[in-house]
Amino acid sequence: MNWRRVTPLVVLTTLLSVSGTASAHVRYVVDSAEDVVSGLRFLIDVLSDPFNAALVGGGALGVAVAALAYLRFRPAARDLAVLRGTLSGYDDLVPWMLRLSVGLPLVGAGFAGYFFTPLVTADLRVLQVAVGFLLLFGLATRVVALVGLLAYLAGLVAEPALLLSGEYVGGFLAIALLGGGRPSADHMLQRIAEDERTLYGRFDPVHRAASWLHARTDPYREYAPTLVRLALGFNFFYLGFTQKLFAPGPALAVVEKYDLTAVVPVDPGLWVVGAGLTEMAVGVALFVGLFTRATAATAFTMLTLTLFGLPDDPVLAHVTLFGMVSMLFITGSGPLAADERLRAAAFGDGSRTGADGETSSASGPNQRV
C-alpha cells in the first residue's frame, strides 16, 4: 500500500469525522422526524408529476450522454491542451489565491460580528480579524491556517450550523500544506533570512526554526487540490441535500420572493428539487474528482447566477467558495481522483491527463516558495 498517498486522505477523513459529530445534531439538519417525512413527501409529490419527472430524468440523461460522448470522441483536444498550458502558468499564484479567498471573508466576518457563517454570531472579532489579516499578508501562514482550522472545529462542536461553511476545512488544510507562496511576507522574509550577510539574516530565528515544518509538509503539497476538492464536494452536497430537498420551505419562499418561476416557467417545487439535485450532483463530481475543471466551472457559474439572481445573498460569505472553485479550475483534481482512473483507462500511459482533458497540477503545489 502506498502510505504516502493514503495518509493525507486518512487525516482528512478524521477531520471530517470530527465535523460529523456536529451533524449528529439532527435538530439542526431538520427540526424533527416529521421534517424528514415532509421532505420525502415533498420530493415524491414533485417527481410524481410526469412533466417534472420527465424534465429531471431528461436532464440527468442528457448530462450522462454528453459526458459519455465526450469521453468517446474528445472534441476540442487542441483547445484544451492550450488551456492547460495557460493555466499551468498560474500555478505559483494558487497559494495567494487561497489566502485571499479565506482571509478576506474572515476579516469581513470579524467586523460584521458573525463566526464564519452569517447564521452564527459570536464575539470573536479579534481572532477572526487577526487570522484573516495574517493570511492576507502571508505571515506565519501555515501556523495561522492551523489556528483558524482549530477555531472552526472548536466552534463546530458547539454550533453545528457551522457545517454550512465546511469548505473552510479544506481551505485551511490546503494553506497549511502550500504555505504563503508568493507574494507573501513569509516569502520576502525567507529570502532575506537566507542571506546571512543581511542584518535580518544574522538574527532571524523564525524561518530557520520553521524549516522542519516545511520538510514535513512539502511531500504532501500535491494533495492540496484533493483536500479542497473533498471539502467543496461535501459542502455542495450537504447544502443541496439539507437546504433544498429536506428543507423545502425556505427554498420555496426564495422562489416566490424573487419570482423565479417568471425566469424559468416551471413548478416552484421543481425549481427547488432541480437546484438541490444539481448542487448534489456537483458535490459528488467534485468529491470523486470527475471532470474536475468542468465541474469547477459549473460551480462557479452557479454561484455567480445566485449572486446576481438573489440580491440579498451575502456576497462576502461566498468569497471562499469562489476562490476554491477557481483554484480547482487551475490545478485540476489532484491525486486520488476519478479523472486519474479514466485517464489510465483511456490512454494507459504515465501522464496525468484527466477525464476532462485536465492535467493534475503537481508542478504548482509542489513548487516550494
From TrEMBL:
Membrane spanning stretches: 51-73, 93-117, 129-154, 161-181, 284-309, 315-338
Protein name as annotated: DoxX family membrane protein
Localisation: Cell membrane
UniProt-annotated stretches for the region Disordered: 349-369
Pfam family for this entry, one: DoxX
Species whose genome carries this gene: Halorussus gelatinilyticus
Origin: domain of life: Archaea
Signal sequence, renumbered to the chain: none
Composition bias, Polar residues: 358-369
Membrane topology: Multi-pass membrane protein
Any GO CC annotation of this UniProt entry: plasma membrane
Chief location category: membrane
Key words of the record: Cell membrane, Membrane, Transmembrane, Transmembrane helix
